[in-house]
Amino acid sequence: MMTAAQPIEFFLKDGRFDVNKLFLHYSKPLFYFALKFVDEEQAKDVVQDVFYKLWEDKSLSISGSLNGFLFTMTRNRCLQIIEKQKVRAKYADAVHFRMQEDELLFYSNEHSSLIEAELKEQLEKAIEELPEKCREVFILSRFQNKRNKDIAEELGISVKMVEKHITKALRYIRLSLGDYLPLFLLLQAYFIDQKSSDFFS
Amino acid sequence: MKEIEEIKSRYIRGEATESEAKILLEWLEKNPEERTAYYQEKDIWDSYAFVNNSQNYSSEEELLRLKRRIRFNTKTSFSMPRPLKVAALLLFAFLSGWLVQFLVSNHGTSDVVAEMREVVVPNGQIHQLFLADGSRIWLNSGSKLNVPSVFTGDERKVSLEGEAFFEIAKDPEHPFKVEVKGQTIEVLGTSFNVRAYPDADVVQTTLHTGKIKLHAGREIVDLSPGEQTQLHVNTGKIQVKNVNPVNYYSWRDGRYELKDECLTDVFRLVERWYDVSIKYDENDFKDMRFSVVLKRNKSVEHFLALLNLSIPIQYQINMDEIIIEKK
């Protein structure tokens, strides 16, 4: 399991990026990041497009962190897809795309997703630290995909209470991860200056 | 206020209706200080999908998919194991025993990095090529096709000089367009033949299956199977005829059927087909029409003998040059 960004050398092979390692390391987090904004099939294609572009566009030059570069590319590709769907959508459906777009625009240099920050371990730990009832509800809702109504019945509490526990859990985790937020910047410390024409061997 | 908390929570879980999403969007616009906290909480919810690996996503499978895509668009040599495997950006395959040759540009270099590829088929040869999108194109002797190394954007566009038979893979999202002398052919998924040699006055488009839309100047013609358009390049006039399409693409199998064609045009086609040059006096054969079937396994003399049956001629063959005179 990864707890921090891997140093860039990890992906180097004979001075070039190793597509196998690069893809196997990054495709899954990028997929889950894209999944925030587009559907499953689209998210798979987005990841394909990002790596394809990396291979195809010989003029691409990466500055900054590789991690940040890949997530930015993914974000931009999702934005293109949402824009396209927004234009095609009927007025009534457009709100949804506008909302997705707004959320997507939130992820800029200032904010990154926890997926990008590779805070997997911290996220796991954060659940353990939740108050008992709150954790129970959160796990049933998030990991067992149970509906609030069913959780309420199972635990003998009101649906409103279930709602409250989930809201509380998210707030609690956000605050407990607060310490890590400055770390987001630190994670971009692995800088590279490599033309992607030297990309995959 | 209570209501918005509920909507926020419902949206995070993907249960919000359109009208609830609208309320939330307006609320976020009115309360920008809450925006960061809200999206961070949603991000926490979403990120657990990754932590928990809740989706059916296989990096290994996706990597294979990526490699396939890359391979389709880069293979430029002819070292592939099976000629008919759809495996390359352009794959030149054997056709009825003719030489496979990787074609280079006019300068004699293979332009691997170039965005546009020019495929040139010498006289006397036929080539078949596969495109990454699953389409197949047969190029007749003395033809030139410009095709991008990868189709990008909303349409798949190629340009042709000469004769080709197209078998285009269906992809309504990305219409296929063929640009030839004086006209553009718009295709959704179909097969058709185009003959548009630079030295001929007529551009002939014959539809075999499917549907195509032909744009020439201001005119637009929809073709149905079995129909053929003849665009007269000098006048811009378009004629539509009913034909047996088989006659117009049987050249792929080594049988070139020419029906009621201008004799001087026939000479040019013979030159390409057999890779010879024919010398004649323009005035001798002006305004004459001729029908003939050229066969790959028959020599050019066979053609000359057939011609002699309808129009008495005298001819002389010096290597690749043929001199024809009217008797």
TrEMBL record, chain A:
Domain RNA polymerase sigma-70 region, chain residue ranges per copy: 22-86
Gene3D superfamilies according to UniProt: 1.10.1740.10, Winged helix-like DNA-binding domain superfamily/Winged helix DNA-binding domain
Domain RNA polymerase sigma factor 70 region 4 type: residue ranges: 121-171
Name of the protein: RNA polymerase sigma-70 factor, ECF subfamily
SUPFAM superfamilies linked: Sigma2 domain of RNA polymerase sigma factors, Sigma3 and sigma4 domains of RNA polymerase sigma factors
Molecular function in Gene Ontology: DNA binding; sigma factor activity
GO BP terms: DNA-templated transcription initiation
Lineage top rank: taxon: Bacteria
TrEMBL record, chain B:
Annotated Protein FecR C-terminal domain residues: 257-324
GO MF: sigma factor antagonist activity
Protein name: FecR family protein
Pfam families: FecR, FecR_C
Record-linked InterPro entries: FecR, FecR_C, Ferrdict_sens_TM
Biological source species: Sunxiuqinia elliptica
Transmembrane listed as a keyword: yes
TM region(s), chain numbering: 86-104
Lineage, uppermost ranks: Bacteria, Pseudomonadati, Bacteroidota, Bacteroidia, Marinilabiliales
Domain FecR protein residues, every copy: 119-212
Gene3D superfamilies attached to this UniProt entry: 2.60.120.1440, 3.55.50.30
Entry keywords, A to Z: Membrane, Transmembrane, Transmembrane helix
